[in-house]
Batch of 2 targets.
Target 1
Amino acid sequence: MRPIQATIHLDALRHNLAVAKHRAPNSKVMAVVKANAYGHGLLRAAEGLSQADGFAVLELNEAISLREAGYLQTILLLEGLFDRTELVDAAKYDISIVVHCEQQIEMLEQVNLSTSTHVFLKMNTGMNRLGFIPETYASALTRLEKIKSVADITMMTHFATADEDAGIVAPLARFKEVTKGFDYPTSLANSAALLRYPASHSDWVRPGILMYGASPVSGQSAHALGLQPAMTFTSELIAVQVLQDGESVGYGQKFTAHKTTRVGVVACGYADGYPRHTPSGTAIAVDGQLTRTLGRVSMDMLFADITDIPDAAIGSQVELWGAQVPVDVIAEASGTVGYELLCAVAPRVPFKVIG
Ligand SMILES: *Cc1c(COP(=O)(O)O)cnc(C)c1O
């Protein structure tokens, strides 16, 4: 079998959840497990995060599979319902729903449910993606209050710049101003806000990326934040080449040796989810030693410099990302964020769970 593998560490998930609870001790933690738990596998990740106070997903079928797996805590649909037929199952499985637009309020008004629905009413505080603008928020809330099947309401928003210099001061002030006088619980903070802005914690925090041990804030490493990577992406060397001065390796000859250079051929390529844009010279570990990639990433293979790792040979262990090579380092080198790489590990990669 091809030696590539993604290993999910349940103990790292548990550790990162504990970090979130420690940093936001007075809030309930809604672990965001959308996008197949950021590529880790929904039920796999839920097992490691089983002590979370809630889970957040996008699709009703994800919410139902969590319920059917036995999770009893709050489960929130972050984009709410996509059509009214979903309302019946949402109620049946006791799934909480975001309401972000008028059409979703109408759905609730029109369907006469005997069961109760838990609503998170979303305010648009500057992201301009989902939610009611501050000017219409109070009237949306008043409308929801009149719907018999709405059992409870939580007021929420999502910050556009919690991870950047602009921060959350202005949107948080706006949220507070609009919601003043309404006595409902609130939910505001994603990972970056949770870590950077205690003022945003409130009743529920909604961390995603930090659960998986990657950093939500560029320039601050996950390690420095006390997080542990939940995924280790590994493979092995399947060939070794020796380049002489002037010889190149891989498509486009993007790396040319200026001295005798040993090259390990790694069984991992962009079809496995390793980004093709990663330049020659990016960090990679072979047999536990940090080294660099060489040349262009191809579909099924990439290259590691093993000149200074004389014992490296066919079968040597390679860490593409994990504890030794933070996923954020690979992301930065390829012009993206850890989120995207974790989500993009290809279906052909076998997963294993430990811890
Ligand atoms: C994805 C998402 C989160 C989690 O964001 P992270 O940056 O991964 O912590 C929180 N809230 C909402 C509404 C989201 O869509």
Target 2
Amino acid sequence: MTAEEEARRLDAEDPLPTLRGEFLVPPAPGGRYAEAAYLAGNSLGLQPRSVAGRLREELDDWARLAVEAHTRGRRPWVDYHELLREPAARLVGALPHEVVAMNSLTVNLHLMMASFYRPAGERTRIVIEDSAFPSDSYAVASQAVHHGLDPAETVVRLKPRPGEDNLRTEDVVAFLEREGGTVALVMLGGVNYLTGQLMDMPAITKAGRAAGAVVGWDLAHAAGNVPLRLHDWDVDFAAWCTYKYLNGGPGAVAGCFVHERHVRDASVPKLAGWWGTDPAVRFRMDPDIAPPASADAWQLSNPPILALAPVLASLEIFDRVGMDALRAKSERLTGYLASRLAGIGARVLTPPDPAARGAQLSVRVEDAGGAVRRLAEEHGVIADAREPDVVRFAPAPLYCTFHDCHRVAEALAALG
Ligand SMILES: *Cc1c(COP(=O)(O)O)cnc(C)c1O
């Protein structure tokens, strides 16, 4: 059997057949294949076919009912965000009142830090990873400045050991045990955007909280990628975007988690807006806010329905499949790609242990930008370059196939 036949056999026999047919897969540049092998779902997930109809319904309600659609639409807009609550809670392992869909990711990180980054006395530092996504770096540095602190002293950037690509959990825990008394906030990525490393969130959360720090997670690359148990892990807060693995569309509305112990604590300071008051009294237009004991208390504005509709459509797919089945398929797909990449001698920097990675393999390739262009133009493989020398491949398990992974290996080998 050729490698290609083997890949097709794996697709045909997988216990979770691909849901590719429910997504709009872009055409492959180059002409050799009809469809792209789309490995960039960690940047922007593909469009579910169900999205257009959902948007059309909201546009129709706007046309037919205008302001009345707030209360009489087929999904009344005043509490539209409620429709996302249960699916989002299942996705991240939260209680329903611990999650809310609102804003965008970086905005939510700031709202969370406004509440939970409270530098005082010796305890002022914010711990991130050295390879944090730039938005997170900028956000924490600006929070330090906002509190009158020097970011160079306030922000700690954890680095892998010399010669290694990934952080070791034991090193993060040891740092927190040693210096935790000066740490106000630990805010790492659950899955690192660059290396694809899946952090040991329960262990790091435990160590951070034991050190007296607040622990928040950026789940941009974790939500919809790996199973999460935010409530049980005792995470203080988390935020995630919905346009990567969650396929919610460009700039789609983000998610936010606040642990139950905080939502019940009225003394937690919040930046407030009218959507954060109890809906039962919202339209009394009182001058004083009456926040509910839920993550909704962090909402500011009335939500953008047209940006929520695709997220709702997408979450329905995750609900139908379930994160555990999806993760199992993801491990099979990524494992297959890893073995094919090993076969061609690719230099993978993502951890080899399936438990320490999600659906992404990052490969060192000289001139990453040029390589990604050639992969697309010559092979119809869509991947993503992080200059100077990292190409990221994400076999998103809802719509990527073993055959796509086969195409990646063939294409990378052909680059030489
Ligand atoms: C994608 C990503 C972002 C993007 O932030 P937005 O506010 O959605 O533009 C931020 N942080 C991480 C870790 C990311 O992976």
